[in-house]
Amino acid sequence: MDAIILLTLTGLGLAALYFLVASGLSLVFGLADVLNFAHGLFLGVGAYATWWAAGNLPGAGADGLGFVVAVAFGVAAGTLMAVLVELVLIRPLYSRTIEQVLVTVGLSLAGVALLQATWGADARPFPRPEWTRQVTTILGAQVPNGGLLLIIAAVLVLAAILAFLQWTRYGLIIRAGVENREMVTALGIDVRKAFTLVFAIGGAAAALAGALGSVYFGTVSPQQGGSLLIFAFIVVVIGGMGSVVGSAYAAVAVGLLQQFVNYYGTSGLGDICVVALLAVVLLLRPQGIAGKAAIA
User: Fold this and answer.
1) Is 292 contained in some domain?
2) Residue 98, SS3?
3) How far apart are CA 187 and CA 143, in angstroms?
4) DSSP notation for 211-245
5) pLDDT of residue 137
């Protein structure tokens, strides 16, 4: 019984990490129809900026309020990177899908190379608060606090995104833009500002995933964003392209499936089962669990 509880909670921690990355992808595709293969770069920038800030930024550190300051710096760096990418590279290429893919894939590769050139290709130890190295006993299971931190962060991010989409002016513009972008433009609303805003939100969520994911794994590496991006795309497709809630459901399914199968089967079998689940969803329900129209 303890093993099941532990696997469930660690699986939910992994699901939370996937959701933090996938939520931004889902928002960006839902409004702007952009498959952003450079999304992992935002994660990497957030992780490395947090790592750098913890050791160099005045007021930042690995414990207490200093850790919060370091994470905030990392999130700000990831957000700024996302905004710059949208303004400089993506905005001239809206409605040009092939060029978008080429540019974002190229940027992803260039970003990894830049991180490797700056800080090396090897993984570096990530400064973590002492309490994240410890465990909490839940129904007899010793659950790592780093995973619980991810779960709490993902729940808060999901609630914040849903509240933003439901109760703010720009949230309503984004929801309307997903349904009928031409009508929103015809009403005189500058939907390009909404594009930039969803890129900023996606970049912030990815950067947060980079910082907290590095706490969870204990290290930071240039390839970290790319490996997580693969599963984030799987989550987005299973949940429904453009659906944040669908991505949350899919992340839970993928995280739990991966964790249980890897534990009770052989190592790596969980990844194969996740790909098999993706294939089944594409065959039986190509629009995903929630479909594009259900962004909120």
Assistant:
1) no
2) helix
3) 52
4) HHHHHHHSEE-TTHHHHHHHHHHHHHHHH-TT-HH
5) 83
Q: What is the pLDDT of residue 28?
A: 84
d(CA 249, CA 15): 9
Question: Which structure tokens are listed for 224?
Answer: 């970290």
Structure tokens at 18: 């996937």
CATH code for position 144:
1.10.3470
Q: For residues 34 and 223, what is the distance between their CA atoms, to the nearest angstrom?
A: 22
For residues 274 and 255, give the distance between their C-alpha atoms in angstroms, rounded to a whole number. Answer: 9
**H or E segment and range at residue 143:** strand 141-144
* 267 falls within a domain: yes
Please state whether beta strands 124-125 and 135-138 pair in parallel, antiparallel, or not at all (unpaired): unpaired
Q: Is residue 296 assigned to a domain?
A: no
pTM of the model: 0.90
Spatial separation of the C-alpha atoms in residues 198 and 27, rounded to whole Å: 6
* Domain of residue 207, residue span: 2-284
Q: Average pLDDT by consecutive 10-residue portion of the chain (296 residues)? A: 86 94 86 82 93 83 81 94 91 80 90 89 86 84 89 94 87 73 72 84 93 91 87 91 88 93 85 91 85 49
What pLDDT score does 294 carry?
Answer: 42
Q: How many domains does the structure of the chain reveal?
A: 1
Sequence-separated (6 or more) residues with CB below 8 Å from residue 210: 42, 43, 44, 45, 46, 47, 48, 50, 74, 78, 220, 224, 225
Residue at 293 is within a domain: no
The alpha carbon of residue 224 and the mean position of all alpha carbons in its chain are separated, in whole angstroms, by 12
- CA distance linking residue 148 with residue 77, whole number of Å: 24
